[in-house]
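So, can you check what follows?
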Amino acid sequence: MKKLSWVIVLTLIASSLVFGQAQTVQKLVFYRLSAASHDTYCLPLIAAFEEENPNIKIESVVVTSGGYEALASKVLLACAAGTPPDFAMTGYSLIKTMVESGNSIALDPFMKKDPDFDSKSLFPAMLNLGKVDGKQYLIPLGTSTPIMLINKDLFQKVGLNADNPPRSWAEAEAASKILKDAGYMGALWGWSITGNWIFQTLVENSGGMLANADASTLLFNQDPGLKTMTYLQDQVKKGYMPVTDQTLATFATGKLGMLIDSSFQRVNTPKMVNFPVVFAPLPTPTGSLPLVPAGGNGVMMFAQDPQKQEAAWKFIKFLTKEKASFIVGEQSGYTPANEKVIASLKTKYANDKNFAITLDQAARVTPWYSWPGENGGKINKVLRDMQEAILLQKISPKAGLDKAAAEIKALL
């Protein structure tokens, strides 16, 4: 009887321990984009993290359309309602908007006290993408760069060589003329991507900037911006460039020779078309190696409870580790920030020229301009609408740029 009593006691103790463990399972809410291209790396990342941390479960709240602006709006609304996510995916161009909302958590204290976090394992250029006023608010998840996609079959058909692609704006125009004369479309510059990304790229490669650091002085409507929009409008006038925001669908028709888009397309686009795709650096005004503003996203913390902050930090730190970095690097078109993983990927995929160029470009990224204040998304839309109006020849490049500058000043 005494032995039976001890069995009962031990069983109760074991049950209480199991119950206690169950009670300590922590749920974290993660706001993120969700589409086939994002789920292919996000879902494996979450599964791998939960396998390593069985006491933490991640609940995704997803945004399926509207991109980073729609996602940022959803996060800000949740914060205003007093129900912020514990962490959220954020596009690089919207970091300042999120920080200035007053809800994001600086990560520096977590980084400093955690001996398992090694900032030296990350490319400094990528880590710097997540800083605002010297503080680290975002850890990069995946980075993309502007790049040119070439329809190799179409190039060959009209006598062009995809392995010797256009390097300058003039060469891109000459190739576009050859394509048009053969009954095809030339180059489609992806002006509609998030409003300002390709525009910023072209302005900076023309020697300009969108604005100064605090946006107190707008610069995009000066000579480099005028040069950019005049060139693009000329390509439309000459019949070389279609005006559409359905960039990938247009490329997939097989009738477009060149598409300036994102290196994020490395995995998905070749699967959706029936012709070989060759990647090349985007043409610049002089043919020099292009400056490449970082596209893509990272993760920011919004948890207010200290215990949830510690758990959220575990996930954010996990993104910098080799396991997570290989998932991002191999299962998406993004490049991870882990320098060692990038070196491994370069060796493993040495024969994949498209992969090689994306890895090379990601190591030398420049910041994607982040507008201060709460109207970052609205400002990007102003820039997008400005480009569309100029390309459709509803307004001259100079008038369109000045009109956008006036609207953005009001929003700032």
